[in-house]
Structure formats: C-alpha cells, structure tokens
Amino acid sequence: MNVVRTCGWLLSLALLQSTAPAATAVAPAGANTNTSTYQVEVVIFRSLAPPASEDLNKPAEGRGFEGAAASGIAPPTLVRKLDASQMQLGNIAARLRSSGAWQVLAHAGWIQTATDWPKHVGLDLADLGLTASDLRGSIYLERGQQYLHFGVDLHLGGEPGWSLSELRKVKYNEKNYFDHPGFGVIAIVSPVRRSVP
Fold first, then answer.
1. pLDDT of residue 195
2. For the chain, what is the largest distance between any 2 Cα atoms, rounded to a whole number of angstroms?
3. Residue 105 near residue 80 (C-beta atoms within 8 A)
4. What is d(CA 151, CA 29) in angstroms, rounded to the nearest whole number?
5. What pLDDT, on a 0 to 100 scale, did the predictor assign at position 30?
6. Secondary structure of the chain in the HEC alphabet?
7. Which residues lie below 8 Å from residue 35, measured CB to CB, with a gap of 6+?
8. What is the C-alpha separation between 114 and 76, in angstroms, rounded?
9. Of the four listed, 3, 79, 143, 152, which is most buried by Cβ atoms within 10 Å?
C-alpha cells in the first residue's frame, strides 16, 4: 500500500470512527421480515485529485469472488428503499462533501434479503438508487452458515476505467471501507427486526 492509498485509508478510517454506533433497523409492524432481511446503506465517493503515481486502470482484482457466479440463482429481493431520515451514514457523506478532497457520487439505503454464500448474485446499482455518471456495477450480500458477506463490483469511467471488486465477511452495524486509490465505498449492514404493533 503506497503513501497516497494509505492517506486515503486513514482519512476514511477517521470518518468511520467518528460516528456513533449504528442502531438495529426496525421493520414496520406487519412487514414481511425474517432473519435473512437486512438494512444496507452505501456511500460511494471519488478523489478529486486521484494519485498520478498509480495505474488506476488496472483490472479489478476480485478479492473474495472465488469462482464464477452461480447460474439460475434468483437475485436477492429488494424489499424497499430507505429515505434520508432512515439512513445512518449521512454525517459521513456530509464530511466527505465538505472535505474538499472527495466527491460523493452516490448515497442510498435499502432493505433486502441475502443470497446463500457463495452464489455471487448481486443487485444492480441503478435498482438500489446508487446512480452517477459513468458508475456501474452491483452490490452483493451473501449469508453463509456462520458469516455474512458483503461485496461490491464497481466500475467508474470509460473503458478500461477504474474498478473496485471485493467481497468479504462483515459484522452487523460496523462501517466497512472498500479501498481504491481513486474512489471508495463505505457500507454498513444491520439486521432488520420486526417492530411491535
């Protein structure tokens, strides 16, 4: 990891640690929820001065995406999108915007189910409300017997463009940073519990 990437990582780490712990999401009374329903929130941002010393056009490494996507597997169910008052990363997005070093490309939250690990079937960014010019890709949430896995497969810009592809184990209510020298992702996943009527 070079100095530029380290500086970006340290900035993001400071942003992650400076907010209060996330609360468990609550579904409305009567909602169709179960133990495999999760609240997901994502902030995607880019550097306003990407480092000139790195080859940002290298292909995505695909860390954690061992094996091809399973065929014939239904994608997770997008239950509903969240409005701004239901999201937890608003303060982080605001600090990124005001820093002068980062541009927030997209910020959205939603409730979804998870696929079984390791199927590698995700939800398209556009369906989740994560839209920005030249940004495309998918978000993945997979449940294994012991661990929950969250991943991104993102491409920014033309061909070849910048790529960020990583799938890894996550814990509930922890903010996770996915790193690329030119852009990054902060994500949080919370279990959804049914509210009392």
1. 56
2. 57
3. no
4. 30
5. 41
6. CCHHHHHHHHHHHHHHHCCCCCCCEEECCCCCCCCCEEEEEEEEEEECCCCCCCCCCCCCCCECCCCCCCCCCCCCCEEEECCHHHCCCHHHHHHHHHCCCEEEEEEEEEEEECEECCCCCCEEHHHHCCCCCCEEEEEEEEECCCCEEEEEEEEECCCCCEEEEEEEEECCCCCEEEECCCEEEEEEEEEEEECCC
7. 191
8. 5
9. 152
What Å distances lie between residue 143 and 38, 50, 113, 118, 140, CA to CA? Answer: 11, 34, 9, 8, 10
- Cα separation, 160 vs 164, in Å, equals 12
pLDDT of 40 reads: 98
Q: How far apart are the first and last CA of the chain?
A: 51
Q: What are phi and psi of 34, to 5 degrees?
A: -150, -175
Tokens of 80: 């509903």
Cβ pair 16, 45 in contact under 8 A? no
Tokens read off for 110? 């939603």
- For the chain, list residues with pLDDT below 70: 1-35, 58-62, 68, 158-160, 194-197
Tell me the per-residue pLDDT of 19-58, one tens digit each, with 9 for 90 and over: 444 444 544 434 443 447 999 999 999 999 877 777 777 6
CA atoms within 13 A of residue 8's CA, in its CB half-sphere: 23
